[in-house]
């Protein structure tokens, strides 16, 4: 399964519904929703009320990227707001195992995100419990940053490790993803690409279609 997850953070918030429909109609499978608390990351974005409102606009999978300290506090509220998948940062959870289980028990998919400088080995004990691993390719907190090249090696190493163990969680990459580096990331083993600026700056429909074309090549192989 290869999926484009447009990051709503890159959208024009005065035209949210129109922009969501554009990426939905153009073939994006997930909608990536960046929740920031001003503590785990410097910025503040949006939370449950916005997610609950846009739930009426689309049936896309709501992929909630929690850039929040101790995100376990919000699992039930996020479920209620319409989240399908909650991705928490390893660095933000004292009891990561418990948080993963909380998300799954609430009936959602559980993902774990790693900051660029966090090694993949921190997930060794929970690899068989997670539905998705998010390799951050920028320091989280803002859209429009430059891709950090060593993230590519992390994706490659993670895919190899999962293959050796016979595990199949999704590998998502987020930050500085563009039409130019998408193939490299898929080649390295990623199967869900998050893109904010590369989708919403300019023509969101045309950009989504261009990503979808690339993903289709990989789906076919
Ligand atoms: C960054 C967020 C990203 C962001 C990506 O902290 O997690 O999802 O919106 O934006 P681009 O694709 O512009 O780097
Ligand atoms: Zn994100």
Characterise the protein shown here:
This protein is 35% helix and 19% strand. By secondary structure, the chain is an alpha/beta fold. α1 runs parallel beside α8 and α2 runs parallel beside α3. It starts with a strand and ends with a helix. The mean pLDDT is 98.
Summarize the structure.
This protein is 35% helix and 19% strand. By secondary structure, it is an alpha/beta fold.
> Into which percent range does the helicity of residues fall?
25-40%
Count of DSSP E strands?
Answer: 8
Largest sheet, strands/sense/barrel? 8 strands, parallel
Bound molecules: D-xylitol-5-phosphate, zinc ion
Structural class per helix/strand content?
Answer: alpha/beta
Low-pLDDT sequence parts: none
- Strand proportion: 15-25%
Rg on CA atoms, Å: 16 Å
Distance between the termini: 11 Å
Order of helices and strands: EHEHEHEHEEHEHEHH
Strand order of the biggest β-sheet:
1-8-7-6-5-4-3-2
**Chain-averaged pLDDT:** 98
What's the overall geometry?
globular
The count of helical stretches stands at 8
